[in-house]
Amino acid sequence: MKNTSSKHKHMIEVIESELKYTRSMIGRDRFSPRVMEAMKKVPRDKFVPEDLKFLAFDNGPVPIGHGQTISQPYIVALMTDLLELEPDHVVLEVGTGSGYQTAILSQLCKQVYSIEVIADLSEAAEARFKNLGYSNIETRVGNGYQGWPEHAPYDGIIVTAAAAYIPEALKEQLKPGAKMVIPVGLPHMHQELMLVEKDRQGEINVSPILGVAFVPLVETPATDTNDTAH
Fold first, then answer.
1. 71 a catalytic residue
2. What pTM did the predictor assign?
3. Which of 35, 174, 45, 37 is nearest to 99 (CA)?
């Protein structure tokens, strides 16, 4: 059985291989070296359930409870790369989940604000961030369709579950000249990863990138939770 470091290295090789296969669809030949360095640095095995750690570095989604998943590493890299983040950027993530995507973002920008509708997942992710030393992340339990207006406008917005439509609130919270990456579509039907760009005049342009399969972005939690920041 491979050790963790060799599995992690293999994950990176698979991402690069899949990039070559999909480059004609996604319109890029490579991912930013900064993005790939973050993918190498963040330990994905720390973000999956104990009994599923053997799947941590596979190029596929992994269940994390509450009907949610940690996304396929290639998709994490792709969505992150599409944002084109800079070190001084402030980013909104909708759908904290396990916190893996959040941790990747935290390596590339100044501050990440991450909102999650399921309180148990938000609290568990926050504990992971603390244990792993990620100090530029703030989490909140709430409705992702409404975003997090207090810290807007954002230099980038990433949505990690499939929305039925592109929320107006998220468009409004996007800074002119910035990008949002969001999967759009209904469960068990065709979903498309969309790149939403707001130009300097505030006009919105939406481009389809790739067919995807995500869990749905829900507006209310399965159990009653209060809207709280951490």
1. yes
2. 0.92
3. 45
